[in-house]
Amino acid sequence: MELQPSHSHAHEPPPASIRALHKRYSKVSAVDIAADSSLLDFSNLSKEHEQRLRVIRRISRRNLEQICQFFETGKEFENCDHGEDINLECSDDILVYEHELLPGLELIPNLLPTSTQRALLSRLWLRDLSNPSHNTNLNLHYELPYEDLNGESFFHLRNPEKHFLKPKDPQMHKPLSVVQMMNKKLRWMTLGGQYDWTRKVYPEMDPDADGKSAQLVSFPNDIALLIHSIFPSISPQAAIANLYTPGDQLSPHRDVSEASSAPLASISIGADAIFVIGLGEMDTEGDRNLVMRIRSGDVVLMGGESRWAWHSVPKVLASASVDPGIESWPGGADPDIGDPWREWMRNRRVNLNGGKLRASTETDEESLPKRTCTPARIRAGSELEEEEWRTVAAEVDLCAVICRVGLVSPVVRGDRRQELGGMAAVGGKPSSPARERDQMALRTPAVAATAAAAADPRSPRAGRGTGSGPASHSSSHASPNHATTSVTAFQQARRDIQQQLLGQTHLSPAPLRLRESPAPIVPNLLVCCGIQMSTARRAISDSPERSETPLPRSLDNTFTPNAPSRLGDGNGNANGSANGNANGSPKPAFEGNGATGDNHDVESDGAPHLLHRVKHDNSILALAVSNSLGLIYAGTGGGEVLAWSIETYELVGTMNNHTGGVLALCLSEDEKLLFSSGGDAIVNVWDAVGFKILYSIYSTFDVGDVFCISYSSKSQTAYFGAQNTSIQWYDLKARDQSPKPTLKNHPSRRNHRFFDSTGPGGKTRPRTHEVASIQESRLLEIDPNNIVQYAHYSYVYCMQIVRGLSGGDEAETLLSGGGDGDVKLWNIDPKTSKISERHTLKGSDSGVLSLAVRETFLYCGLTDGEINIWDLDTYQMIRCVKSHCDDVLAMAVWGNNIFSGSSTGYTKRWNGRFECLARWEAHQGLVLSSVATTRRDRLIYITGGNDNCIAIWDVSPLNEGQSVVAKSQNDELLSSLGKLVSFRTVSNNPLYLEECRRGATYLKSLFKRFGASATLLPSEDNRNPVVFARFSGTNPKASKTILFYGHYDVIPAELQSNDEWVTDPFELTGVNGYLYGRGVSDNKGPCLAALFAAGELVQEQALTSDIVFLIEGEEESGSRGFANAVRRNKDLIGDVDWVLLANSYWLDDEVPCLTYGLRGVIHATIEITSEHPDLHSGVDGSRLNREPTIDLVGLLARLTDDDGTILIPGFYDPICPVTEAEEERYADIAANFLKRDPTIDTEALKNRLMSKWRFPSLTIHRVNVSGPSNATIIPRAVSAAISLRIVPDQQLSEVKEALTGYLQAQFGRFKSSNQLKISIDHEAEPWLGDPENEAFRTLEKAIMEEWGKDGDQAGVKPFYIREGGSIPTARFLEKEFGAMAAHLPCGQASDHAHLDNERLRLKNLYKSKAILKKVFTELPWK
């Protein structure tokens, strides 16, 4: 008999201790979580928790493996104890813990393997979410489009953005697309008992519910069996699958709606979460509450006393330590799931909470699925009885099923296609031949002429097709003997499978999703026929006719040795075995993911470093790179060709003359000409240096998209591969002899067969016949004789010109790859540039999407994820590698390095033996293009994708076995800045004290690396140290010493849900020529620019004077302790002649600046208190009662008049009038702005700048009151925080005295019984430099030289500006050392210092280093 719950009030508020814990951990950062020893984290157990945890039982790992294997594959238990505990201890057993604070709370870390977690995700979101019986948070207000699913899941919908959830009340809610639903709005789903979150009851148990709502929904049998088999005490009848993302919370609550005291199981999958659980204030020992970190695969059982505990999830963390197999889901779960959903689980957490709905009855026990289950009983949504199941199995043609799911070799698929083509496929869909997929972004459909020709039996393409018709794969390249062997093995396997299947008692379960079909079919034969088909494959691959490769079998992916199965490999295989067969036997690498598929974790010792990421507003479809010019050219989906600097990643040029996406780019050998082609059937020739169009080439035929270009500099001929299967060329050296183009054949003048067809009344739609905006003399028309029609029997996707394959080292050969799977070699006539076919490399059914050549080896990227490797000397395919899960859209080669990029977004790097060295995610989407190059002896790999990004990767060393190439100084600067930014040096938060010290220590090590003497100067207790360093010059006595001041501390920056950071603030990220990260502009970047400037001079033996550095760690907290630290160590610092700072920003983003003045500041608090306590306004409010708030408001009102003039007597008297020199500086600024904006009011601009820079101001920051924050309280005390910004002519002490005296005098006039208190919280002196001194003149000269190297900045003097902010140390260092100071702003006005998305332009960083280097060299001698 079960105990009934003692708590039945589901709406009862949680105790204060639970609420406090929930609130605290909802605001804590990830860093604080990692350092919190009070947090129970099994990955980092503190001694306190280690002592309070105890092992209460064990779970047999062998049993668990078989239970999970059955859940994933349907393979029956073998001598399994079905989750019962065991008595004999085994080191491999799984330990179940209990914490002494909460008896009955069982904690099982890392229980479920990755493969089981993936299978559970598939059951929940691919199957159960599609079942209308299961409720979601959206069903209350929306009608979900279940009718659109056709038996599939929401992930399988094509164009999910076009399928909508209809609101039940359109006036209250707007329609939602399925994309919005899955990405943002879906929060939970109920299984079995349909919990009503609003009423917090189960309708099935509510006596007031109507019959329809009270109907019990069956719980998914396979999930119930999984839970019950591991935990026999739980017979799940109801569960809630919660879906979280970082920033989401689950408020404190208790699960008291169930009428059963049986334990509840909580299974976590995906991102980490903080879990708060406790009983509240229960005894005299204190709060019995526990806070723990839950990770993917962990299971928590709430039983015993903890069954009714309060619990909540205050915080979900970003996926920092999640298995890639989980993050990549649903990738690998089903090949029909589109790219937009891949890695849907990244930064998501699924929590499945299940248990019994009511007390045990015989009926409940009978409803539990048995351990010896038939498929009909275990799979949800099917009512087939076992006899029906057998009948269905006998009627299904297993050949078609096996062929459809891909269990036979590619040779069998070709030879047996005609026989198997009409047989039913899995899910009841006719088994269509393998189709050629065109997944490259923004490619238009085939033109009508192409489709008509493909359908015409008289056409040369008939019978082969363009990659979309049934005949397109009808040919086979296998030898007759090989085909015979393959078919025989296949037929034998088929007979064995039929016999075994019809004689089985316990068949396999349904697959992860079922498709609706008019006729019932066997849901999953993949598992049933695993043993036999692995034998068939070995018979096929090891046949005598199998062509041996020159590679050893250990490197041959067409041969797979026997290997033991492995549970939870993360590959999404059917049973978690290493290669996916039902019995764990190996699967050939060319079938499925294999050992090198995208879901496999390749060792990444050679993983690259992301140098920068350039973002655009369109897909990056094509790339080219010029080493001599230092430019990256990118073709976009919007028809633009963009040029970016490879040094600073700035956009330096834009070329527009395409009306369709730019699909291909090609540079001439001398890198003076750039060719581009696209979806508008045009090939443009550009000046690669000046970005001007030279020629526009077009064909008189309707070629469709021009997918590829290759240019022969030797013959000055450009070759193009097109959508209409042709290859065409144009000889530029013969353009003057060519006849003048007839513009009637220009693509913009050509009538389209569909869009320009006649409509009602025989009229056509009016068109504007506009040729692209270039001179007609630059239009070049391809000679009809310079065309090879039907060069391939499909689109011509890629081509490349190589030399030395035949006819001497200079003889050129054109290679072309098409969607028909073939690669063709074409001879190029050196006189006429015509091409003639030399040889065809017969491929498979997979289209050739990309190719690259290394020496005499050809690497072809195919549509199904394979890479074919050909020997161009012997025309033999020496290897076929299953490299990716999906289309290989990009190939690149440099030296012995081969790179492949796929439509999954992943890129792989291979060595010369084609061993995978690294695998990484290059793009959130498709990798559409790539190119490799070198820069300063380092190997650079550049990728473009449909996520609108270009990614630049440092993949050095260049070659295998080569030592790491030394980085350039700029590369070292970026690397060091990235490291420094990673330290969370937040000075106003004690939690980051250790991080601040680590940052200071790292700075000290950097100084020492460049040869400086460096030490840490201690400041006040518990304050951050000052980094002191000295670079010793070669002739210090004859020159002057420069002191550079900066700071390494930053203001807080946390990734909270309401933040607008687009990157991790403490991970340096390069985007569009800018470096993003907290402190990169204020002030870590400028500090390192100065450090590296001095360090480079030391390395070059060009530093003649001493350079002293003082880098403090408390600037953002008022420079606490800095002055005392400097005074204590003045002898160590020595004499100083000049002080330099670099801690501010330009006036705008265009013109460099020099800062020569800063305002000072006085921060004060005005507090007024009453002798009475907080009172109630309704009881004690009276005109006789002088309220502190009224006094404060009156006092603050007397600080300024209606015009904002500060009323403190004599406040403005010391301020000097504006000089003529100042007027000129302001006039220069106004004149420059007037050039850019003629509508600007120059006088208003000057007045606005002066009011902010050279005149004082007063600000009221905030007002605080005592007592509760409601509208009925008369506060006992009230305070206001104010600040006065003062200017250099005002004395700090005099202003403080005048402020306090004026406030006290005004308060005395109130005749109030309240008390006034004025406290000065912080102060800083103003600073005014001399713009005419040698420091500013030297800085001005260096700025003009460095920025003058760019044509747009040549001759522009920097603005001389003052700033309204304060830097206390500027005036302090001047007075302390008797040295003049100068200030070099490094950043731009848009750097977002102290805000989200702080950034620094890379160009500014490099220029600042160069400017300081010049100043360090020249200023000491002035």
What can you see in these coordinates?
- A hairpin with a 5-residue loop joins β40 (906-910) and β41 (916-921).
- The protein starts with 15 loop residues before the first helix and ends with a helix.
- Residues 1-8, 77-90, 205-214, 360-605 and 958-965 have low confidence and may be disordered.
- The protein has 31 helices and 62 strands.
- An eight-stranded antiparallel beta sheet has the order 1-2-3-13-10-15-8-7.
- It is α+β, with helices and mostly antiparallel strands and 1422 residues long.
- α16 runs antiparallel to α18 and α26 (1220-1236) packs across α27.
Can you describe this structure in just a few lines?
With 1422 residues, the chain is of the alpha+beta class. It contains 31 helices and 62 strands. It has an 8-stranded antiparallel β-sheet.
Class from secondary-structure proportions = alpha+beta
Mean pLDDT equals: 78
Helix content: 10-25%
> Which strands sit side by side, in order, in the main sheet?
1-2-3-13-10-15-8-7
Detail the poorly predicted runs. Answer: 1-8, 77-90, 205-214, 360-605, 958-965
Distance between the termini: 96 Å
What is the number of strand segments? 62
Number of helices: 31
The radius of gyration computed from the alpha-carbon positions, rounded to a whole number of angstroms, is 37 Å
Report the portion of residues in β strands: 25-35%
Global outline = globular
- Sheet with the most strands, sense and barrel status: 8 strands, antiparallel
Keywords:
single chain, 1422 residues, 8-stranded antiparallel beta sheet, 6-stranded mixed beta sheet, 31 helices, 62 strands
